[in-house]
Write a structure and sequence with these properties.
Elements (H helix, E strand, L loop, with lengths): L1 H12 L11 E7 L4 E5 L12 H11 L5 E8 L10 H10 L5 E5 L6 E5 H4 L11
Parallel strand pairs: 3-4
Antiparallel strand pairs: 1-2, 1-3, 4-5
């Protein structure tokens, strides 16, 4: 499944709208029901309005009614310096995904796939649970 997610993320990265950075990123999010949700980065001249590939995939899945996820793959950069989820994406993913969820990341090309967990990427994640 890891390779399937990486391949899907690489394919969708081609659709990135990144005319400001020219930095293509793709994400493939695996829902617990086996469906794969894709996202690419979408930049905007107002940089704060830019959306990352991971959140694009997650928000599409959420809009379709999905709430449980079991893995995500993110691709961007090079084999030597691959993209990993940014801090905002790590926090947003932690709202819907367990800290044990596998996170795979790799360059747009190459054979190296890094494997970690969401908890390793974002230890001590903020939780709104104490706000209720």
């Amino acid at each position: 499944m890891k390779q399937k997610l990486i391949s899907a993320a690489r394919e969708v990265a081609k659709n990135a709208y990144c005319k400001y950075s020219n930095y293509h990123v793709g994400a493939a999010l695996l829902a617990d029901d086996g469906t794969i949700w894709l996202g690419c980065n979408v930049e905007n001249s107002s940089f704060g309005a830019t959306n990352c590939a991971e959140r694009t995939a997650l928000f599409s899945a959420i809009a379709a009614g999905k709430r449980k996820f079991s893995a995500i793959a993110v691709v961007g950069g090079t084999d030597a310096e691959p993209a990993s989820p940014c801090g905002i994406c790590r926090q947003v993913l932690s709202e819907f995904c367990s800290s044990e969820m596998p996170v795979y990341f790799a360059g747009l090309e190459g054979d190296t796939i890094h494997t970690t967990t969401l908890g390793e990427l974002l230890p001590l994640a903020f939780s709104g649970a104490n706000l209720e």
